[in-house]
Structure formats: C-alpha cells, structure tokens
Write a structure and sequence with these properties.
The protein is α+β, with helices and mostly antiparallel strands. The protein has 7 helices and 15 strands. Bound molecules: 6-O-phosphono-alpha-D-fructofuranose (P6P).
Length: about 300
C-alpha cells in the first residue's frame, strides 16, 4: 500500500523552500484549531460587524485570531490582511519574508444550516500587499470544513495538492497534481439576482440549463470551487449587479488566491470585462471584483458571451 505522505514530507519531496514549508505548517495548524472550534460549537453572533458591514459570528473573530496568532508565531510574516480587519497589520518579525492575505471563515453565515465553509490564504514574498497582483504570489491555500476537513495547497510551478486531516491531527496527502479539463458539464451560477438587470447573464444560465448541465451551487465559495477541482471541471460565476457593481467577492482574500490555485491546476479566472484576475492590481485590501473561474474554455466562452 502506498506510504501515507504528511504535508511536510510531501512538500520536501517537491523541493518547496523551507520557509514556505514552515509557513504552510503554521497555516495548517490554524486550520486544525479552527476546525476544533467549529466542532466545539463556538457559534452565534458576537454583536459586531466587520469592515464590510457584515455581522460577525464569534467564529469569524475567533478564526481570525487563531490565524493571526499562528502567522505571527511563524516569525516569517511581515504583514497580514484579513477580511475581518479594516486595514493591514504589521508584525515586528526580524526574519519576515512574507505577506499573507486571508479570509478566516468564508461563508460563515452557512454554519447554522450545517453547510460546508472554508478559510482562504494568499502568500506573497516581501512586505507590501498594496500594488501587488495575484501573478506575484508564491503560494495559496484553502481549507474546507465539511464532512472531511481538507487543506488544498498550490505552490508556484509545483501544482495543486489536497491533504486530509486525519483522526490524530495530521494532514495526509489524498490527491496530488489536480488538472482541470477545458470544458465542463457542471456550473455554479452565483449572484443570480444580477439576471434581473443583466439579460445576457440570464441567457447564459438558461443556456446551461437547456444543455442539461448539472448545477452545483451552495453559496460557499470554498466548497463550490473545491467541487470544481475535485470533479476536474466546472465554472463558477459571480458577476456584478446594482447592489454590487464590482461583484461581492474580494480580490486579495478570495479571488486572487483562487485565481492562483486554478491557474496552477490548468484553469482560468477572469473578471466580467475579460481581464485576468491574476493581473488585477490590489489597490485596497477590501477591493471587490467580479469573477468567472474554472475550466478554461468555459470561462472564456462565458465572458465573451457577456461582453458581446
Ligand atoms: P450570494 C459567502 O458569503 C460569500 O462571500 C462566498 O463564499 C460566496 O461565493 C458568496 O458570498 C455567495 O454570495 O450572493 O450567493 O449569497
């Protein structure tokens, strides 16, 4: 039987730089602690709102604290940017080499209906986030807290790989080198309220239905995109609408990390105007963007259809 490979063992085999390995093991530890908090039932709101005016769960605040603590303890991080914090935060580490932008608990409003949620991480070298693009990332990762707890990691030029948290608290390799097909039978149409003003978007979704494609949409970006990677095909769309002309999802915390991961898996991420998500410059931490992401030919065809 193939030997079970731990996260660090596999990353060493892939010749991943020791500092990135060390940072990723701190991130993996934070995922383990967040999972424990989730299962321990630290739910309920805490009566506060985050910078985007969204009501915060105790878990949002706790997950943010857990991640920030692990990143500071790594002694490798110069600044952090979190979806739960208004601005970037500087650490005083002398060895600092990396910037980390993260969404500590994406889709946390789905917890009360027991749907899967996730954490998202983007890693850049250096000590600045503003002015950077997703193309400059060194690595990105996300965790899915569902029936299984998995951590998916993409390292520049070293592919995308999945690790599952086992019953003794280790992350063990379950799938390596994800590769997306160019076309898909699945679709994940976000922000359907946009069809009221965007007739092209309505026609696009109607066409997918007429072609008898399979709809897979939970309202959680992390499980919805994880579904695409696990099935090796799919398209997730989140266009703008009257309330969110630039879409709802954040470039730094959600779209750039996933754009990096999907590019490493042979996929593509564009905004509604056809710009590559990875080319978009981060001007502000909470900057939003529209996103069409997944199987390359599906993304190109959907965005070209909307632009016609
Ligand atoms: P809608 C969750 O709140 C989230 O930020 C993403 O995880 C998800 O893809 C999106 O919002 C869902 O948005 O408009 O369908 O509720």
């Amino acid at each position: 039987m193939e030997q079970k490979k731990s996260l660090n063992f596999f990353l060493r085999q892939k010749n991943v730089a020791p500092e990135i390995r060390s940072l990723l093991s701190n991130i993996a530890r934070s995922v383990k602690y967040i999972n424990f908090s989730l299962r321990a039932g630290h739910t309920g709101t805490c009566g506060t709102e985050n910078f985007s005016g969204e009501s915060q769960l105790k878990l949002d605040v706790l997950a943010d604290k857990i991640i920030a603590t692990e990143l500071e303890r790594s002694d490798l991080v110069s600044i952090i940017a979190s979806e739960e914090r208004e601005s970037v935060e500087k650490f005083s580490s002398s060895r600092a080499k990396f910037v980390v932008a993260y969404d500590p608990l994406d889709g946390s409003s789905l917890v009360d209906s027991d749907l899967a949620i996730g954490s998202i991480f983007g890693i850049w070298a250096g000590d600045e986030l503003i002015g950077r693009t997703g193309n400059e990332m060194e690595a990105a990762a996300y965790a899915v807290y569902g029936p299984r707890v998995v951590l998916v990691i993409a390292i520049r030029d070293r592919g995308v790989h999945e690790f599952e948290l086992n019953d003794v608290g280790e992350f063990i390799l379950t799938q390596s080198d994800f590769q997306l097909e160019k076309t898909s039978k699945y679709f994940a149409p976000g922000n359907l309220r946009a069809t009221a003003i965007n007739k092209k978007y309505k026609t696009l979704v109607d066409n997918w239905i007429a072609e008898k494609r399979t709809l897979r949409y939970s309202g959680g970006m992390v499980p919805d995109l994880h579904h695409i990677l696990k099935k090796n095909q799919g398209i997730f769309t989140y266009p703008g609408c009257e309330k969110h002309p630039n879409g709802k999802l954040r470039l730094a915390f959600e779209c750039a990390p996933f754009g990096f991961i999907f590019a490493e898996a042979g996929g593509l991420a564009l905004d509604q105007t056809g710009k590559k998500i990875l080319d978009l410059k981060i001007e502000k931490p909470h900057q939003r963007t529209t996103i069409f992401i997944g199987s390359t030919d599906e993304v190109k065809s959907a965005v070209n259809f909307l632009k016609k």
